[in-house]
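Module 6 notes. Inverse folding takes a fixed backbone as the condition and produces residue identities as the prediction. Think of it as a translation problem where the source language is geometry and the target language is the twenty amino acids. Below is one complete input and output pair. Work through it position by position during the lab.
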């Protein structure tokens, strides 16, 4: 028999974590890994829009780590299951990339508006989704145990995406638009 994508087990608004525990699809844990999945999709859009092979390879790595992060969030915390985890090396990679990009960018002295080019705008959308994922995971961590690396990774990733948006703008010749408050 062929594999079918639909199982019909979620038709009544419930879904299963790794480990079998069923939760309502509106549960904060489900919202967390669903938002990480949304972030991963936006990163695919940014990766597909970039011509820079190094950036594309880093984003590919990040997308894979987000699947690890999502698996961590989608696992019943009460079960002792072997799941992929994030490491300090994963966080260090983001920090190294931020430092390398910042060394070639003009110093930022003002707030900038998202935009200027489609790839830049998409990167800013990914950054905002990352921040939302981080806020949701912080809320979850106040109720249940969440690995510290998950929070650190999302925090550093949003910083990386801000700097990446600036770098991508530089590569495509997009002008950074300074916010002009009233």
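Target side of the pair, the amino acids:
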């Amino acid at each position: 028999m062929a594999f079918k994508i639909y199982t019909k087990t979620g038709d009544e608004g419930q879904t299963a974590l790794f480990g079998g525990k069923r939760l309502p699809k509106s549960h904060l844990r489900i919202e967390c890994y669903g938002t990480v999945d949304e972030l991963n999709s936006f990163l695919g859009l940014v990766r597909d829009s970039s011509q820079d092979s190094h950036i594309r390879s880093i984003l590919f790595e990040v997308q894979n780590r987000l699947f690890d992060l999502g698996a961590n969030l989608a696992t019943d915390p009460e079960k002792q299951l072997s799941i992929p985890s994030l490491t300090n090396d994963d966080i260090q990679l983001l920090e190294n990339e931020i430092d390398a990009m910042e060394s070639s960018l003009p110093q930022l002295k003002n707030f900038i508006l998202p935009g200027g080019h489609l790839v830049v705008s998409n990167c800013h959308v990914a950054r905002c989704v990352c921040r939302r994922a981080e806020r949701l995971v912080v809320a979850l961590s106040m109720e249940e145990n969440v690995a510290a690396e998950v929070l650190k990774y999302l925090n550093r990733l949003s910083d990386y995406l801000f700097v990446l948006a600036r770098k991508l703008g530089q590569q495509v010749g997009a002008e950074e638009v300074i916010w002009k408050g009233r």
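Reference fact for the lab report: The chain has a mean pLDDT of 89.
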